[in-house]
């Protein structure tokens, strides 16, 4: 056996042990309530790149994508049915054009890779949904995002909602416009009366229930225009950990906090 084969065998054994350990931890965790929907505000990619002297405008974001794959795997193993990822906000378009282009190219690369994974049957029950002002994405990315939604639409284990070109302000304006169009009878004689439920039905994120737990990395305590309408009853867990550094223990810790706060959250829900 040469060194390369030895390393390969060691990696396989290590991965099997880690998977066994996770199974055990998640079994214990599942003795308590598990959030139905977890949202992630993924912040700190560029600081990660700076901290580790990584060069290239997309270096931190690339590291962030690796984190996404691990976190989604853990969520799926825990049995969380819905996950939302704040991938790119409307305000992020104000960044340097070179960085925006880099992030969009990276997103396209990952979306195309995920399409191939899905087509070859390696996505294991993950359904991907893109929400936001998708018209502001470039044509190739928009088409690829649409294709990924189509090829995964039958998957039922975990629904991942990727928010791109997203902000709640834009989402509300879009939903109000859309619900007006739906409610208009065409004559223009009677004023349109909107109910909250009409607007809610037209929100981009109406495909998922409201989040139970919002996890924000990078040390911020703000929602940054992310699902502000939908999170009035959610628990916000903020960690100083940068997104590419988020690991198994951070996720477990956040869920344990959610479990500890359960009585309080349930009481609040009833009082509203
Ligand atoms: C979040 O990380 C990723 C995106 C908004 C695309 P940042 O790029 O905001 O990284 P920091 O917060 O500047 O470190
Ligand atoms: Mg940031």
Describe the protein's architecture and organization.
Keywords: Transferase. The protein has 272 residues and is an alpha/beta fold. It starts with a helix and ends with a helix. Strand 3 (126-131), helix 5 and strand 4 (158-166) form a beta-alpha-beta unit. It has helices at residues 3-29, 45-51, 59-78, 97-119, 139-151, 168-183, 196-201, 248-260, 262-271, and strands at residues 37-41, 82-89, 126-131, 158-166, 213-216, 235-238. Helix 2 packs across helix 3 (59-78) and helix 4 runs parallel beside helix 5 (139-151). The mean pLDDT is 95.
The gross shape turns out to be globular
Instruction: Return the structural class.
Output: alpha/beta
Average pLDDT level: 95
**Uncertain stretches:** none
Specify the helix fraction band: 40-55%
Q: Which series of helices and strands comes N to C?
A: HEHHEHEHEHHEEHH
How many domains make up the coordinates? 1
CATH superfamily: Decaprenyl diphosphate synthase-like
